[in-house]
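F.,

This is the one I mentioned.
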């Protein structure tokens, strides 16, 4: 079974944390933490850094002279119009010789090789699942665009017990899908996904300065 891991690293400036993909965190560039975990995976996938800017490849090579491959994408895929589905599709078109495609993000620096291995081994051990994603199970009452998601307003019994008001939230750190499912759906999650629950720490996705500071404290504590 051939597995490719796409690691998108956008060179364009982040809106909320300036230069976060390359910013030093706990003594290393942010991208180095996830790539180190990927290089430790026992099933030896092909790891591709995917970026619109060749300078990104040079930065990665200075830290990892060996073991990382590179894919240069069209600049449109670094724009705010492109989502994760777009990113994985353009990568799979350019690299068609794989059975599974994984997508992992350097903004999840606390994600561990053991969790990635567990996800891949479980998803590929049978034909029950055509994809997987990491997630956390959230308890509470949620709203989306002004509409309640898991309670019914105006009904006396429309509010479940808090412990029963559960939702699954994607961590946006790791995805995987078979080539057949990706071609069929055009999406990074297929029709029969495996939900891989992770700890709150591994689920962290750096999106704000506060996230960055928290992740740095955790990395310094555990290194």
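My design for it:
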């Amino acid at each position: 079974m051939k597995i490719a891991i796409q690691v998108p690293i956008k060179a364009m400036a982040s809106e909320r944390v300036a230069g976060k993909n390359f910013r030093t965190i706990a003594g290393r560039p942010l991208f180095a933490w996830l790539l180190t975990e990927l290089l430790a995976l026992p099933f030896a996938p092909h790891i591709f850094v995917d970026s619109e800017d060749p300078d990104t490849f040079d930065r990665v090579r200075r830290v990892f002279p060996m073991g990382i491959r590179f894919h240069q994408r069209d600049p449109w895929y670094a724009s705010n119009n492109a989502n994760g589905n777009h990113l994985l599709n353009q990568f799979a078109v350019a690299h068609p010789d794989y059975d599974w495609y994984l997508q992992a993000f350097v903004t999840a620096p606390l994600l561990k090789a053991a969790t990635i291995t567990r996800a891949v081994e479980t998803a590929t051990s049978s034909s029950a699942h055509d994809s997987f994603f990491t997630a956390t199970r959230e308890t509470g009452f949620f709203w989306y665009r002004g509409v309640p998601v898991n309670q019914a307003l105006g009904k006396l019994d429309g509010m479940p017990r808090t412990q029963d008001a559960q939702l699954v939230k994607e961590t946006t750190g790791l995805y995987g899908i078979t080539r057949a499912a990706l071609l069929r759906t055009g999406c990074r999650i297929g029709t029969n996904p495996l939900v891989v629950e992770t700890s709150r720490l591994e689920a962290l996705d750096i999106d704000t300065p506060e996230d960055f500071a928290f992740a740095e404290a955790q990395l310094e504590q555990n290194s």
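The chain has one domain: 3-135+170-222.

Talk soon.
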